[in-house]
Amino acid sequence: MLELIVPQHAVLGQNVSLECNFNLDGEKLYSVKWYKDGNEFYRFVPQEKPPALKFIHPGVTAIVHESSQRVVVLRSVNLMSTGRYRCEVSAEAPSFQTVSDHSDMTVIALPEEEPIIRDRSMERGKQRYQTGDVVRFNCTSKKSKPPATLSWFINGDPVDPQFLRHHPVVVDERDGLETITLGLEFRLRSKHFKKGDLKIKCLARIYTVYWKSNELSIEGERSLKIPVMESRETRAQGHTHAEHILETDQNFKRRNPLLHFGLNYSGCRTNLHLNALSLSLSLSNISTWHGIKRNRKSKPDK
């Protein structure tokens, strides 16, 4: 009976413990041997002095004084430590029963810094964004093994794959570490500006060992467009925008009734409803004005 515990992922430069738990059903242990890709690198034989012995192979160096018949500790694993590890347990005579099991381990070189977001649109001299602009970002995770998996988020939501721009992985010839870049390109809509700003996040992850992100918050340039007749929603100092226009229009008519009539007659269609109202009020004012004049003429001199 054998239970093998080998971490699926290990971080470059760290010490790693491998465990081999066994039950020989009452038989006496003869030896425990460890192999990496078929090459023996550690042996434990209780009857020998010393019982533990290590063998040097690229990528695996056992720390003997920290190891035992059930545990072997590897010193400062590197990329060459990636591979298949096998534990083989043998019983003493007369049965010489042997059991073994194996498991794979991958050594990961983590990026030295969080992912970097580069704004390609701002590099072209643009200072602020507004609805309708096409924005372009690059997210780069530098020098890792394997390369990080990159993901984009807009205001917390995963980005549609159609907006992603993939770039070739760049491999450093000196150490074999890889740099990856993922682009993002999309057109801004009003829905993107929640609470006045746009949040862009890039997440870099490597299996379950590495998980880091970087976020960019961008304030949008939002222009306010006031409709010609905004009668219920836009209020200032207790009056609607339409009421303010009407009050201004009435003041103008009082001062220039005939001129106002002429201006309204040549107005555009979008203001037709106001022009009709202005015309009615202008004619009313003219009638009133003529009525006052007639009344003045009809009064007898005292």
Automatic annotation (TrEMBL):
Keyword Methyltransferase (UniProt): no
Signal peptide stretch: none
Ig-like domain segment(s): 13-100, 115-156
Main location: membrane
PROSITE patterns referenced in this protein's UniProt entry, alphabetically: IG_LIKE (PS50835)
InterPro entries xref list: CD80_C2-set (IPR013162), Ig-like_dom (IPR007110), Ig-like_dom_sf (IPR036179), Ig-like_fold (IPR013783), Ig_sub (IPR003599)
One annotated Gene Ontology cellular component of this protein: membrane
Stretches that traverse the bilayer: none
Keywords per UniProt: Disulfide bond, Membrane
Tagged with keyword Transmembrane helix: no
Subcellular location: Membrane
Domain of life: Eukaryota
Protein topology in the membrane: Single-pass membrane protein
Name this polypeptide is given: Ig-like domain-containing protein
Species the sequence originates in: Cardiocondyla obscurior
Lineage: Eukaryota, Metazoa, Ecdysozoa, Arthropoda, Hexapoda
